[in-house]
Amino acid sequence: MNKKILIFFPDGVGLRNFAFTQFKEIGEQRGNQIIYWNNTAFPLQEELGYEEVKIKTQKIHPLTPFYCRIRKHIELNVATKKFSDSVYQTYKFPFNYSGIKNTLITLFVRMLIALNSSEKGILRIRKRINSLERSTEKYNYCKAQLQEIKPDLVFCTTQRATQSISALLAAQDLGIKTVAFVYSWDNVPKAMQVVETDYYCVWSDLMKKEVLQYYPFVNASQIFVTGTPQFEPHYDTSLLHTREDFFAQYNLDSAKKYICFSGDDETTSPLDQYYLEDLANAVRSLNTKGYNLGIIYRKCPVDTTSRYDAVIETNKDIIAIIDPLWQAIGKNWNEVFPTKADLQLLHNVCAHSELVTNVCSSTVFDFVAHNKPCLYYNYEQPQLKKGIRDIGQNYNYVHFRSMPSLKAAIFCTAKNQLENQLEVIFKGNLSNVSEGKKWYSIVAGKTPTKASEKIWEAIDAIVR
Predict the structure, then answer these.
(1) 270 φ, ψ (degrees, to nearest 5)
(2) How many CA atoms lie within 13 A of 33 on its CB side?
(3) How high is the pLDDT of residue 406?
(4) What pLDDT is recorded for position 334?
(5) Is 251 helix (H, G, I), strand (E, B) or coil?
(6) Which end of the chain is more exposed for a tag (fewer CB within 10 A), N or C?
(7) CA separation for the pair 162, 323 (Å, rounded)
(8) Which long-range contacts (CB under 8 A, 24 or more apart) does 112-121 make?
(9) What whole-number distance in Å separates Cα of residue 266 and Cα of residue 249?
(10) 295: which strand partners?
(11) Which residues lie below 8 Å from residue 419, measured CB to CB, with a gap of 6+?
């Protein structure tokens, strides 16, 4: 068939799914010519030898971020009313009233939200965003690149980046078919669909249902259920190191069994360091009972805070730090990129830890893919005070309603339960793996090893 497919990276989040997995090789085996359309600072050609076209003009319209925020608020207001559910209001970030300039911007934003809070209003605002982006230099720049490349299809690796709007509009205006991949398990109910493409690839039947529910302008025929390449590396046995090699590489104690503490970003879990401290105290206590346990601390890749340092220093005899292998190519948080090596590292952290503990992260699925349990912290810390976000609201979010039962994860609902729950897990009497696998199947689809193939099947069907 030999079609020219442009894989578009508006930002770095799609790298691990579409540059570091077997995605490209599978597409080429099917006879496609693959070119990466790269809007990031990550050097695909240098690092991976992939054919790429760089997008050098980065400026979106200065009003686009404001209109995107307006769109998000309106979509959340419409969902609140439509489903009689206040949870959608918790997805909003607070307005900024500090100083005259911020106050004026906030008043402008709030006025437009009030004037457009309806399904028709959403379409009006989306139209406005599109017309702003069509007026930019970036739109013309991308259009010229597309006229030169002449691709059969543009595949956008995330639906949530404002950097992608003008490029995808340029493609559509030239009659080139466009597809967006819905990037994360929680994105649809959170009103994070920034782009409108001809087709969408989603993880599961659940996500397809959500897209149709929240975006009435999308038809069922535009949606392909493919799964996500995100979990494919967990099934690649060539990535597995022996326990001896892995422990030697990271100076782990081969006599110990390790619990992975997977750190969160500051927004999701602002008091995360205290959960690490609670885990360290529980491990210390269990070790006095004859257990020999340690902790692998894997931080959130974009967390640059020093908030864990004191806890790690106090417990350095039991906490081993294994940082994600991400690479900073610039000074901003969105210029910190995953690497191919980190897929292998995560595979081995899952394989050689006994379980994972964290606050509400999708690592539950990484670990159940390795038949390992996940414990979620779900209690308040005494340091919680006004102005600090309580982690409890995370578990009320819509994506947690996809759990087949409350046994799909192990919930620790009180600090004084933690030690006992860990002990019961180590005795083999408490696990979420079988229910967790059901949940994983609901969220990520029934064929987690075949996602790249299914995306290429969708692309072939669209191009035909």
Answers:
(1) -65, -20
(2) 9
(3) 95
(4) 66
(5) coil
(6) C
(7) 29
(8) 112/67, 112/70, 113/70, 113/73, 113/74, 113/77, 116/70, 116/74, 117/74, 117/77, 117/78, 118/74, 118/78, 119/78, 119/216, 121/74
(9) 29
(10) 259, 319
(11) 281, 282, 285, 286
Q: Could you give all domains of the chain from N- to C-terminal order, each with its CATH number? A: 4-60+136-227+448-463 (3.40.50.2000), 64-130 (no CATH), 234-444 (3.40.50.2000)
Predicted local distance difference test score (pLDDT) of residue 304: 87
User: Which tokens is 160 given?
Assistant: 């949530």
Measured distance CA(194)–CA(196) in Å, rounded: 7
For the chain (length 464 residues), average pLDDT per consecutive 10? 91 94 97 97 94 95 96 97 96 93 94 96 97 98 98 97 97 98 96 97 98 96 98 97 98 98 94 97 98 97 93 98 90 79 97 98 97 97 87 95 97 97 98 98 97 98 94
- Contact call for residues 169 and 143 (beta carbons, < 8 A): no
415 within 8 A of 391, measured Cβ to Cβ = no
Q: How far apart are alpha carbons 356 and 2 in whole angstroms?
A: 44
pLDDT score at 333: 63
Residue 405 in tokens:
């039962």
